[in-house]
């Protein structure tokens, strides 16, 4: 499984990413071999072994804090 992990020094780095780039555009950039760049956030691709989508949903719904997700977040690629 690949994810895009977004963080940064800004208080709302993940929100900035969503507003400036968004997941759809990020996927297009990655497919073209281009970096995902923007002001106020850092985006990096991380790869893991197979992870059940139900587990990802559980983490997102039950464990991840909504306010924290504005600063750091992950997006399944």
What labels describe this entry?
77 residues, alpha+beta, 3-stranded antiparallel β-sheet, 3 helices, 3 strands, 38% helix, 21% strand, flat
How would you describe the overall organization of this protein?
With 77 residues, the chain is α+β, with helices and mostly antiparallel strands. Helix content is 38%, strand content 21%. A 3-stranded antiparallel β-sheet has the order 2-1-3. The model has no long low-confidence stretch (mean pLDDT 95).
Q: Termini distance?
A: 8 Å
User: What Rg do the Cα atoms give?
Assistant: 12 Å
Overall geometry: flat
Strand tally, please?
A: 3
The fraction of residues assigned to DSSP E strands is 15-25%
SSE order: EHHEHE
Query: For the largest beta sheet, what order do the strands appear in spatially?
Result: 2-1-3
Biggest β-sheet, characterized?
3 strands, antiparallel
Number of domains: 1
Helix proportion of residues, in percent?
25-40%
**What's the helix count?**
3
Give the overall average pLDDT: 95
Task: Label the structural class.
Answer: alpha+beta
């Amino acid at each position: 499984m690949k994810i895009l992990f977004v963080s940064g020094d800004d208080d709302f780095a993940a929100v900035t990413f969503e507003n400036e780039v968004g997941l759809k555009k990020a996927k297009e950039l990655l497919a073209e071999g281009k970096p995902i760049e923007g002001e106020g956030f850092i985006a990096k691709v991380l790869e893991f072994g197979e992870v059940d989508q139900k587990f990802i949903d559980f983490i997102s719904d039950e464990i991840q804090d909504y306010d924290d997700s504005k600063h750091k977040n992950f997006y399944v690629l």
